Please model this.
Amino acid sequence: MKAELDAALVRDFPLLYGNRHAPMQASCMCWGFECGDGWEPLIRELSAKIETIIAAMPVEEQPNFRASQVKEKFGTLRFYMSMGNDAIWAAIDEADAKSAVTCEDCGKPGSVRGGGWIKVQCDACHGGSDVLDPADLP
Ligand SMILES: [Zn+2]
Model:
């Protein structure tokens, strides 16, 4: 993801992304958001939900709940937390499902594509070829 989008997410959700610049031994967030810019809106929406959940917790518990890794894997968004709860997991599941139909490059409606690397793209970003059935994914 572009550096300015990354920086804006970290700025806007300081609790959730408190470990963004932690050492690599401490958090995979040191690698940043390992996905395309097209998913920034859905990551932002998810981040706002989780930030609100964390902010409602007792202050001493808040540091336990941090994003630990955000990346694309097998075509869809994977959003990992150091710790979570039912509300957080539900929000992550929803974002994961949205990522399967959102072009990772531009954010338009997309489908999971094959061809060496599984990725969600719209027709324009992909330039044709196979659309995979999400049920066939690993
Ligand atoms: Zn696209």
About this structure: The pocket of zinc ion is lined by residues 103, 105-106, 108, 110, 121-122, 124-125 (CB under 6 Å). Residues 3-100 form one domain.
